[in-house]
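Thread: assembly with ligand

MN 10:42: here's the input set. Chains plus the small molecule as SMILES. Want everything predicted jointly, not piecewise.
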Amino acid sequence: MTQWLNKLRKGVGRKLAAVHRWNAWMIAFLALSGLILPWGAWREILGAGRVWLKWLHVGVGLALLLPVLYYLLLAGKHWSLLKGRPAQKWNVGIVLLIMTGWFLSGIVLWQFRAFGPRWSNTALTIHDAFTWIGLPYMIYHSVTRTRWLKETHRRSVRTDRPAQQSAGSSPSATEPLYTRRAFLRSAIGAGFAIALGPSFVKWLATSFSADGNVEDLLQKDGNHLVPAPQPAADSLPPVGGGSKGMFRIYTVTPIPEFDNSNWSFTVDGLVRKTLKWNWEEFVKLTRTVQVSNFHCVTGWSVYNNTWEGIPLRHLLEQAGVQSAAQTVKFYSGDGVYTDSLTMKQAQMDDIMVAVMLDGKPIPSDLGGPVRLVVPQMYTYKSVKWLNRIELIAEDHVGYWEERGYDKDAWLPDAKRT
Ligand SMILES: Nc1nc2c(c(=O)[nH]1)N[C@H]1C(S)=C(S)[C@@H](COP(=O)(O)O)O[C@H]1N2
Ligand SMILES: [Mo]
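BT 11:07: finished. Tokens for the full assembly:
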């Protein structure tokens, strides 16, 4: 009977070990890629590689189903092996729960178009939450189970036994060794708590407080252009009631800084009249106010933004579009980022060359002094630090589209007019 059990233990044990190893490597990859993907500095470094990394992240995430399903086949036997070891049972449960949370929210983020922004937004919050809880948990788990710690443990256990070959070592060595292991465990735990605790609390605070962050951003001295634009009555206080949510600051270059000496705005290309303004002139153009939502393809949204600026249509009318023009190309003052709209899309009423957000000048972090806002499309279309609009006869593939983003940026519920 015991022989049979030992055999089973060995066979299942080997399979379980393999599942565990695969699972660990996949999660390590997902953790690393998952941390890199939203990380600002890596946007600049990776470029097109970022889109590949995203697909790898999705692919490995889906493939995680394989070891999990395989484990579930063995789970019954594993469970009986864990008899009398509640801590290990808990560990299995927690790990499975974390992976389920990651998996389900990951599916929604992957299929963001099918689910729409509200779902994506929730899924991203959940994906993040599971990361900030699950990752420290799994790192702790793997660090405290590394071989050298086990070795320490085994040695301490071995010296517990009397009359062993290690007779040379003094018996008093037992205590310190075991204590050292316990000490290391708590030290590592405390290290994680100190390193990750504050960022976790901050994350909690920003996710669950409605609009603190936008206000903070707007408080910061946005840009150095004078005179500051004066808000319209609808802008201050903002008719939208103030932005709800948190912008993630995205840029593929260092954030460019402008002042009156190096800023200008140009409309050129296939126009009847090239237009060029300096800031003092630009700030006098007639502006309108709109309230719209802001949806990034990576899942986050900011609702009820009150933007004040010049409707794109007005600028195009003023310049006079030549009939050969097919595409409106937008240039960022960062010198790198561009995007485009078809001439037909560019006629939509709500596209805005925005100067203010919630009654304040747009801070440079959010693309000020002037950014594009295309409310009916995912916001990679909303070019930050916009300083030139060119009408061209051919097509233009934008920065992220060249690197794998869909040319079709329409939101699922877009009216398209
Ligand atoms: N110049 C420039 N414009 C840009 C980007 C960028 O990296 N550079 N990122 C785009 C993307 S993908 C998004 S989601 C929004 C983010 O705007 P925010 O940084 O103000 O939150 O800006 C868009 N416009
Ligand atoms: Mo985005």
